[in-house]
Amino acid sequence: MTDALTAQTVELLQQLIRNRCVNDGTVASGQEVRTGDVLSAYLEGTGLDLEVYEPDGAPGRTSLVARIEGTDPAAPTLCLMGHTDVVPVTPEHWTRDPFGGELVNGEVWGRGAVDMLNLTASQAVALRALARRGWRPRGTLVYLACADEEAGGALGAGYMCKRHWDALRADYLLTENGGTVSGHGGELNVTVHVGEKGVAWRRLRIKGTPGHGSMPYGADNALVKAAQVVTGLANYRPAPYVSDLWTAFVGSLDLDPKVKAALVDPSRVDEAIAGLPAGMARLAWSATHTTFSPNTCRGGVKTNVIPDVVDIEVDIRTVPGDNEDEVRRHLDKALGALAQEVAVEKLFSKPASVSPTRTPLWDVLGRVVEAHYPGARLLPRLIVGFTDAPYFREHGAVAYGFGLFSRALTAEAMAGRFHGNDERIDVESLALTTQAWLNTCELFLG
Ligand SMILES: [Zn+2]
């Protein structure tokens, strides 16, 4: 049985999926104005203040802000933020129409169903329910439905936080990447994203000397050197980063206690990861190391010309504490003697960021989770990808990734559907998340 609020979340989510606000990284894509209009129409007439923002030179890339003003200026402001864009799909690999928003056997299908139109829709439903009943909280509630998260957020949350912070002024932020439930041995955990790794995208330019391809002996071939650079990056093993967050996460895993002990010991963690199943090993390595993934290579002009320049782009993800200088030191170590011959260009950087867990909002989230999953504990996580949360952390806000999902929607199922094929979400999760936003607002701002 579906209650009235959940039915609204389902319907709104279906509309947002059908709007296909696909962000391919170009300024002309996304066109989140379509979803902004749907959300505005849904929220209108409830006494909410609605404001639409569009960055200069990016028509259609709108973000929407709605507010319920608090009565006590000293009380904190909570922002619920959802992005409205989604990543592209390969329709041939889908069982159903990726933009159909179909409801089949208790699941809503489509691109954005878990990343993150589910949250954007359920936040709007909670906000409207509160506004309609004339709720007057002590603290202010802000809702931000923003564009462009999937391309880094410069035209969405980044633009809002840099240019229109006065419209937000959030002390606390709740957004994506939490809320999955896991448990073993009678223990139940609900994940909350409290921090994320940093990003340091770099272009490495390797120069050589052009020459005739018929005489390669002793040649200064940029591509040959680039191959060594790539190998150096692939084989590089930086020192592990074993934090409290990692230790808590390992504690929640259903693994042999000996393996768990090794995973939290800096001198043994690398070896322990090597013995894990492939999927878990991949995650564990990223959670405990700054990583280097050489992902593009451009160079050479013709089959018979020795190339004089090759560009390699490397996706570097940093652990907390690895600043720009440290990234450079890592590259120098990874490349060894070749480092002298490589010019490093910064493409995109942001530091890792972590919010504290000893906060009033953390306690409220614990109570909300307890109400739906008795005995469950919050499990703080450092995520290895990135979200819009750091834009808020830069302003001193405490930012968490939250939500509340069904037992059926495991972290593994989630991971496969994020940017994956056959993305979908069960209605029970939509019901839980909608209730969780309502409960959180009432308890925290009430
Ligand atoms: Zn997302």
N→C terminal distance? 29 Å
Structural class: alpha+beta
Rg calculated over all Cα atoms: 24 Å
* Structural domains: how many: 2
| Content of β-strand | 15-25%
Q: How would you describe this structure to a colleague?
A:
- With 446 residues, the chain is α+β, with helices and mostly antiparallel strands.
- The chain folds into two domains: 4-184 and 353-445, Aminopeptidase (3-Layer(aba) Sandwich); 198-350, 2-Layer Sandwich (Alpha-Beta Plaits).
- The protein is built from 14 helices and 19 strands.
- It has helices at residues 4-18, 33-43, 117-132, 157-163, 222-235, 244-252, 257-263, 269-274, 278-288, 324-335, 360-372, 389-393, 411-417, 427-445, and strands at residues 49-53, 63-68, 78-83, 103-104, 107-109, 141-146, 172-175, 181-184, 187-196, 198-207, 211-212, 291-299, 305-306, 309-318, 342-350, 353-354, 377-383, 398-401, 424-426.
- The strands form five sheets. The chain has a six-stranded mixed sheet with strand order 1-2-6-3-7-18. Strands 8, 9, 16 and 17 form a four-stranded mixed sheet that branches. A four-stranded antiparallel sheet has the order 12-14-10-15, with helices on one face.
- The structure holds zinc ion.
- The site of zinc ion has 5 residues, from loops.
- Zinc ion binds next to loops.
